[in-house]
Predict the structure.
Amino acid sequence: MLEYERSIDEMFRALADPTRRSILEQLDQGPASVSKLAEPFHLSLAAIAQHVQVLERSHLISTHKSGRQRLCSIDPAAVQSAERWLRTRRTRWEQRLDRLEQHLDKSTQEHRNDR
Amino acid sequence: MLEYERSIDEMFRALADPTRRSILEQLDQGPASVSKLAEPFHLSLAAIAQHVQVLERSHLISTHKSGRQRLCSIDPAAVQSAERWLRTRRTRWEQRLDRLEQHLDKSTQEHRNDR
DNA sequence: CCGATATTCAACTCTTGACTTGACTATCAG
DNA sequence: CTGATAGTCAAGTCAAGAGTTGAATATCGG
């Protein structure tokens, strides 16, 4: 796998877990510590800390220690690169459909008298 | 988990696998049968058929049988909904950063004489 | 310094997911 | 009809991932 693909891979694997996506949604509201992020869940702090690690390795968030706390925030650049991958798939496909449609329109016109 | 979230969940779990993303990339070029999709991989046909099933359940692709073949094509609508989830995360965060920046600018101006 | 807070680490369990193989079914071409 | 093609089904293997617990570490407030 190429270098670029390796990082896309980590990103999508990180996004695959509902707890991690929920953490990202929390971070919409601003930076938060690990225990703050853990509050909404019925999970051990260690579990959340592990999720945070995965999110950081995938570059979807960045963190830094401030005293006892580890503050987490979304990294918009990485999120955008996953977004771009999807947009590419979708727009290529939509273009294909457009061309196909045009082609069919044209054929219909050309063969109008055949019917 | 809400109904909406259930479907987002299946989508992102489907996207987490590099083989499945690679299948989607192939489908950029147009519809294809299962064995056509399998060609680039060193995997059994059964394995690819399973991936196709996952992609279909997640609504990222749709398929139909045509004779012996099962033809697969991307479903742009579903792709867009994953894309939208990411875009929401990113833009919310970017807006937060903008507001923060404005606030800091303002504070800097107000306290210019303090330094 | 002391107790409480916020993590971090390591080890272990349990489930799920990817993949295989071999047998079975349906369709096509000659 | 017959062999070859395209896929489907059902087990079963194997490794990776999510979660737990308990002990260890670092920082804060008084």
